[in-house]
Design a protein that fits this description.
six-stranded mixed beta sheet; 10 helices; globular; single chain
């Protein structure tokens, strides 16, 4: 579904990604692991068009999308839940969710989709008229995921979904992400520093180090790799 070949990307004079090659199969759950500064966020932002690549190719389905706009990538089915949520803080929970559907084709019931999202996140149903600015960190992350799901993505990209959340809330968020993958058949890519949690739910994983892929394999294999256990799983 998503193929990255020789991808180079960065900001200004700084190149962050140095020739990445990786493949995301349709219906898979993939974790992108790495320390802060490894290039995870740059990869996610480049995939959705917020950062223009300097080299290489990104193929989505059967189409090269290197220079396709972020809006057209979203319409095609690539949706990002960004690090830090980036909610519309002055708008209500309901309004934020509806904003996620601005690229969608007509003919689908917004209310049915809202109901489906709220079934996944019952806490949001209780806060539907509240301003996004009043939400807790966990509620905000739920809203960010729900907003992305309103676009009917084929691939859901999540950048550091556990950042700043209490462990119990992290468990809840990842449980819902797993349900979206299993029930809806959604392709999921999670960029995470919390390797233990990511590897517990993902099928395949890549480890980024210094803007290159240092390791890759199934989540089970990487969980048993000495380097991964030492660096990310506490030995």
């Amino acid at each position: 579904m998503l193929r990255i070949e020789g991808l180079r990307s960065g900001y200004g004079p700084l190149e962050v990604l140095h020739g990445l090659n990786l493949t995301i199969e349709e219906g898979s759950f993939v974790a992108i692991l790495g320390a802060n500064g490894a290039g995870k966020s740059t990869l996610m932002r480049t995939l959705v068009g917020l950062v223009v690549p300097r080299g290489g190719h990104i193929t989505f389905g059967d189409r090269i999308i290197d220079h396709v706009s972020p809006e057209r990538r979203l319409r095609a089915g690539l949706a990002l839940v960004p690090e830090g949520r980036e909610l519309f803080r002055s708008l209500s929970v309901r309004e934020n969710l509806l904003m996620g559907a601005f690229t969608r084709p007509g003919g689908r019931s917004m209310e049915e989709d809202l109901a489906r999202i709220l079934d996944y996140f019952p806490r949001l149903k209780q806060r539907l008229t509240a301003a996004a600015a009043s939400l807790s960190g966990g509620e905000g992350q739920m809203l960010a995921i729900g907003r992305a799901m309103m676009a009917h993505p084929r691939v859901l990209l999540l950048d550091e979904p556990s950042h700043g959340l209490a462990p119990t809330i992290v468990d809840t968020v990842f449980a819902v992400i797993s349900q979206l993958h299993q029930r809806d058949g959604l392709t999921v890519v999670v960029a995470e520093q919390n390797a233990k949690k990511a590897l517990s739910v993902a099928q395949h994983a890549y480890v980024l180090q210094g803007g290159t892929i240092a390791l890759s394999g199934t989540a089970a294999e990487l969980s048993q790799t000495a380097a991964v256990r030492e660096l990310y799983l506490g030995g």
